[in-house]
Structures are given as C-alpha cells and as structure tokens.
Specification:
It is a single chain. By secondary structure, this protein is of the alpha+beta class. The chain folds into two domains: about 25-115, Sandwich (Immunoglobulin-like), CATH 2.60.40; about 140-225, no CATH class. About 20% of the residues lie in helices and about 30% in strands. The strands form five sheets. The protein has a five-stranded mixed β-sheet with strand order 2-8-7-4-5, with no helix packed on it. The longest helix has 20 residues, at about 1-20. The protein is globular.
Length: about 230
C-alpha cells in the first residue's frame, strides 16, 4: 500500500514543481497611478518586479512607441520621460516578466501629484543609495516621515497603523491623485481594513458619510477615535 501511495504522489509533486518553475515574474507600478491626469509633461515611472527573473533592462513604450530602456537593479527601476498632451498607454516589458500596461492622461486637468520633485537626488531623502539603484528604505517608516511632516498619534488612543509606525496603508509615498497623498478616499479607504459587517452596517446607517468627519484617523482622546 505504501508503494502505491508513493507512486501516486510523485507525478503530482513533479507537476507542481514544473508549474512553479514556469511562473512568470510580475511588474508593479508604484507611480504614477492608473488612469491619472498629470498636469505636466514630465513623468517619472517608478516600478518593481516581483518573482524570479534574469532581466537586466525594462523596455518602456507609450502607445506602441518605445520611449527607452531602464536598468533593473535589485528588482527596482525608474524612468523619467516627457509625454505630449493626450492619452497614453504606457507598457512595460522585459524578458521573463509579464507585460504590464497603465493608462495616464497628460494635459491641463491636473490630478496626480508626485510626492517629491522629479529629480532622482530627492529619492535619497527616503531611500538609501537611491542614486546607486539600491532602493532600500531607511528604518522606521513613521520616523522617516517625521523628517518632513509633523508628528501624529500624540493622543491617548492611537490608530493601529500609526501605533505600528506605518503610514503607507493610508498614504502613498510616491504620489497620488488624492489630497494628502491618500491611497483612496472616503469609506473605500477605511473599508480596506475595517471590512467587518459591523463597520459596513455603521457606514450604511450614517448614509455613507465621510468617516473622518467623526473619527480622527491618527489618534484621539475618545473611544473609537471620535473627534
């Protein structure tokens, strides 16, 4: 009986290993956001590749026309370019990596804003050795943010992410189309974590009112982070 089980298991194991070995790596665009309006012709594309790959360069194209190539270092890349007014479908391609496309709009209607100026030297403010394409982040996220921003979470009852010194669950460190560089707004932002039935029911009873009208997202002296 043991021999039969072993024979049955081996092909499944080999098949699984074969499937894993051919899984393609993935592009992740950190900036700009999908479907963004950008009120300037200068665009900085920030991205990363997850999963095993041997690619050295990333080809960046817009509307089918190659704009250039960006070195891939430690799974990260940046590419700065100028784009004419109008709609652009930016495509990323590299050997062994699934192609990725995002759409942006260049023109007078400004929506997306970068967190910092479009100069690589400013990346060093948050990333160690960014100029050498090593985009490791300096330790303690909140401590890093306090280099430029006033401290938050000073009241008695501190919101979980703030207590964990984590700002990025709510704020995008590279750029955003929303005020205060939020990753989304309204109830969608809060429900990304507070998805319990009780939370949803509470929001519905308040007729989908903006949560921060009553709750402080950083800290409060009152229960439930009430203002």
């Amino acid at each position: 009986m043991r021999k039969i089980l072993c024979l049955a298991i081996v092909p499944i194991t080999v098949l699984a290993a074969s499937t894993w070995s051919f899984a393609a790596a993935q592009f992740h665009v950190l900036a700009p956001a999908e479907e963004s309006f950008i009120g300037m012709d200068q665009v900085l594309i920030i991205g990363e590749v997850t999963g095993f790959n041997e690619a050295k360069m990333v080809e960046i194209s817009s509307n089918g026309k190659t704009l250039g190539f960006a070195p891939l270092q430690n799974g990260n890349f940046t590419f700065k370019t100028k784009l004419a007014d109008g709609r652009h479908e930016i495509t990323l391609a590299a050997p062994g990596v699934d192609r990725k496309s995002i759409r942006v709009f260049i023109g007078k209607q400004e929506g997306y804003r970068y967190h910092t100026e479009l100069d690589m030297k400013y990346c060093n403010n948050c990333h160690e050795k960014a100029a050498a394409s090593n985009y490791s982040v300096k330790p303690m996220q909140a401590e890093l943010c306090r280099q430029c921003h006033d401290p938050v979470g000073t009241m008695e009852i501190v919101h979980g992410p703030v207590a964990a010194s984590s700002c990025t669950p709510c704020h995008d460190p590279h750029g955003s189309r929303y005020d205060k560089f939020l990753v989304s707004i309204g109830k969608e932002l809060c429900l990304a974590c507070h998805s319990q039935n009780l939370s949803r029911k509470h929001i519905e009873e308040r007729k989908n009112a903006d949560c921060v009208k009553c709750h402080d997202p950083h800290s409060s002296a009152k229960e439930y982070h009430l203002r």
